Amino acid sequence: MSQTHETRVQVRNGLVVATLFIAFSAIITFVVTEQELRLRLFGISMGIMVAYYGNAVSKNLTPLARLRCDPITEQALRRFSAWSLTLAGLAYVIVYLAFPPDEAVMIATGLLGFAVLLVVGRTVWTKMTRKMTRE
Amino acid sequence: MSLVFKALSDPTRRKVLQLLQRGPMTAGELADHFDVAKPTMSAHFAVLVNAELIQAEKNGRSITYRLRMSVLEEALLGFASAFGLQVSREQDAPSEPNTQGS
């Protein structure tokens, strides 16, 4: 598959997925009348979106590896980010399925924030470790 | 997806992916871990490239492979490795993988 064709496929798939998410949100907004169910469905769709894009990070960001950085470190960080976001997205979905919406908002947001902090923390730690190694 | 399952069904290819999880490696460095002929290894690399699980880059005379797996595919790899999944060996036509210039 040539680079141009692959890029077109990725853009097309991205647009299709984004359209599906928007359509699903519109359906929830205009069709679902029960407030609690609406909140749950929004939460579940957000979790699925985070998990979907987290899953794709490791595979589709490989062109970044061609930048001038240590490829082993870059790969490790990319995989760690992908796993953290994917698991956080799945946890987000489970929380919205299992808990009442009022509690689910806090727990799910906390889990997602924790995952983002983990990724940021690991990146900062890796940078500091490399700086110390060079000195 | 069937290409991914086919790629993960072979223990040699799974080991290649596990080695690449540590970082990019050249074809020679990967082949050193296996007691098989170079054409056979090339065939395995071709299957993995076709399944879009690894990416090949030509650097001068050597080819460097790097991992290109999604989280789901890595989970499938772990599952296949844990349960030792294997199908009967097929005749993979040895062919040079598509390489991208660096």
Please characterize this protein's 3D structure.
The complex is a heterodimer of chains A (135) and B (102). Chain A is mainly alpha-helical and 135 residues long. Chain A has helices spanning 3-31, 35-60, 71-98, 101-134. Chain A is flat. The mean pLDDT of chain A is 86. With 102 residues, chain B is α+β, with helices and mostly antiparallel strands. Chain B has five helices and four strands. In chain B, strands 1-3-2-4 form a four-stranded mixed sheet. At the A-B interface, helix 2 and helix 3 of A face helix 5 of B.
What's the short story on this structure?
The complex is a heterodimer of chains A (135) and B (102). By secondary structure, chain A is mainly alpha-helical.
Question: In terms of topology, how is this protein built?
Answer:
The complex is a heterodimer of chains A (135) and B (102).
Chain A lengths: L2 H29 L3 H26 L10 H28 L2 H34 L1
Chain B lengths: L1 H7 L2 H10 L4 E2 H5 L6 H13 L3 E6 L2 E6 L3 H12 L17 E2 L1
Parallel strand pairs in B: 2-4
Antiparallel strand pairs in B: 1-3, 2-3
List keywords for this structure.
heterodimer; A: 135 residues; mainly alpha; 4 helices; B: 102 residues; four-stranded mixed β-sheet; 4 strands
